[in-house]
Design a protein that fits this description.
Blueprint (H helix, E strand, L loop, with lengths): L4 E2 L3 H6 L12 E2 L6 H12 L4 H12 L18 H5 L2 H14 L3 H11 L6 H17 L1 H4 L34
Parallel strand pairs: 1-2
């Protein structure tokens, strides 16, 4: 008589970085509308609200690279780092927010990112990561069309029951010309 809670977040849903019918499925997903960058900020905030023991645990969570691996290898090292594969979540979450909140075009997403991340990422990096985001965002819609229920926490959500409806076979092609 228990409930299976999902742990996937908005960033993973947008990029489809989950296993279909694996970690993608649960009875209720508590983080479904919380982007990964906000999770990290919230953990940082919580580290300042409690004693040193909790602060140390929170800092360890923040310092651990994002990875789908559940346990380190026998050598204690992570073999897979998500941001090495997909690029920085700071950019992905930025693209997602501006695409969903204002319907920004690919060209506008690039321009906004160049301004917001001036001195952090160069144009080639922003453009390459935007293409990765758009390709994955469109190609992974089939996973978002059958997600479990969950709360809407902020202004952006990918729930197919309310905020975002898109055919599963939509192509990213026209979005990649910017």
């Amino acid at each position: 008589g228990g409930i299976v809670l999902g742990t996937g977040d908005l960033s993973e849903a947008a990029l489809g970085f989950c296993t279909y019918n694996g970690d993608h499925m649960s009875m209720y997903n508590v983080n479904c509308s919380v982007p990964k960058t906000l999770v990290k900020s919230l953990v940082g905030y919580l580290s300042r609200c409690f004693d040193e023991t909790v602060a140390a645990i929170c800092q360890d969570v923040i310092d651990t690279p994002i990875s789908p691996e559940l346990l380190p290898t026998s050598q204690g090292e992570l073999q897979q780092r998500t941001e090495d594969i997909l690029g920085d979540y700071a950019l992905h979450d930025f693209f997602l927010y501006h695409l969903m909140d204002s319907g920004a075009s690919a060209g506008k997403l690039k321009m906004l990112a160049m301004q917001a991340f001036h001195g952090v990422y160069g144009e080639a990096r922003v453009e390459a990561q935007l293409k990765t985001f758009l390709r994955r965002f469109f190609a992974q819609q089939f996973k978002r069309n059958c997600v479990p229920d969950g709360p809407k926490v902020g202004s952006v959500s990918l729930s197919p029951r309310g905020d975002w409806r898109m055919p599963s076979d939509m192509q990213a092609g026209m979005w990649l010309d910017f």
